[in-house]
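Format notes (please read before filing issues)

Several people have asked whether sequences and structure tokens are stored in separate files. They are not. Every record keeps both together, in the order shown below: the sequence lines, then the token lines. Line labels are part of the format and must not be stripped during preprocessing.
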Amino acid sequence: MEKRRLPEPFMEFEDLRQGLTAEMVTPFKQHVSDLLHAHDLIYEQKRDALAAAAVGSLPYPPISAAARELLQSGVLCVLGEGAAPYHPRYVAPDYARILHEGSPFLELKPAQTLFDATTSLLTAYKYFPAGGLPVFIGRLDELLEPYIDTVSPETARQVLKSFWLLVDRLNPSGFVHADLGPAASKTGALLLDVDRELGTITNLTLRYDPQHTPQEFALQAISNALGVTKPYFLNHPAMAADWGEDYVIASCYNALPLKGGIYTLVRLNLKRAAEMADDDPERFLDETLPEIGKNWTEVIASRARYIIEDVRWFEDNFWIEEGLLDKHKFSAYAGVFGLAEAVNHFTRTDAHPEASYGHDKAANRLAERITTRIHEVLEDNPVASCEGTDGKACYHAQVGITSDLDTTPATRVPSGEEPELYEHILTEAPTHKWINGGISTILEFDQTAAQNPAAVLDIIQGAFKAGIRNLSIGSANSEFVRVTGYLIRRADLEAHKAEKALRYSSAALGSGVMENHPNHLHRIPRKV
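Then the structure lines:
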């Protein structure tokens, strides 16, 4: 029997000006029916998918014919947000204000104990105002450290364990994200301890600073990463140089200002964009990218304007009224993916099949030129609503979705094609330079790393000196797989193949990516 597959989200239309046309009604109804009858979705997942289908039936906000053409051709993509978004994609609330001052709307008093603080945070997550999932749950060590000594050490660990378990059970998604560091603390060490014990897929980032993060704390984080593929190691000095100290990492590895948000993520498929320039890389750099850039930022501005002026999201919003979010700290992502394929389009030939990204100096240099040129294009095309990033769209490296075919996430070397370790780092590091909105390099180690975490720390420090902004560290033997930016468990991959319902909403997405990109399971393991 042929395996039934749930259709992709219904959100792309033949005529972007009209939304759901008469010709689209029948397939739309079929899509809704498929959702209602899906046995591999639990109730909450059906509800969310039905809501996405409703939003997807709306027409796009006004954009030019040229911008519509790029969306229809797949050169640009709005990444599952629907035609007309009614909320920002990501926000980063100031949870410290809730803990210190309480919240009139949530009827929360200022926290006095660790019990109060964790209860207030769990309450705030329930009302997270973007996307239904709290993609940023706070810089937790900073938030909870003032309360850690209000209870005994044994009770503190139990409270944090219960809190971390509830975060996972109430928000079952690999897109939920917390930050730690750069300083060590009792709370940070305890959270790493309980995370290792519980083995949840709630995402974590350690904002690592070689000058201010104690080695013992860093080594504990490395031990966790080799076991459960988190936390990320973030180059805090590099990020703070761009953002200042008040930035956060949300969802996969997305940077944004504390109290700020991201209206939308409009991504550019560099593989398809390269094909528009035939075989001429100079034409691609000088003509194709600048022309796309005008339409790219037009789509971003149109979507942000719809949220601000049409939906009027900032009005009658307690997150704004109570000072938990600030409109002036919002921006939008201009994301890129498929850099490897774009480079190989221009450099790899029948005569020189080895001239590919990661293995050829000219190819690597072209990759750096492309990412630099995109930065220049974004600087030349301001977006007024992106006040949080000085009126320019925020440059982002996007990790890919289920429907992507024959493309590599972000600016990475394709999985399974990585050069030796240090060459891999030196290949990807130059592409990180301008992409301050979020980017990562993934390294997987074999069993030798567990016996020598200090050597892994040396690699991390060397990578940061080379220009890497963010490293995902994992083990080839771990139950947890870093799909693109978030985690799934290998057991969930098998359950998805058997069409079983999965509690983690991100697991089905990750499983779909793995089906289209099975090489994600075959990254080259590194020895130390």
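For reference, the curators noted about this record: DSSP finds 19 helices and 14 strands in the chain. Residues 1-59 form one domain.
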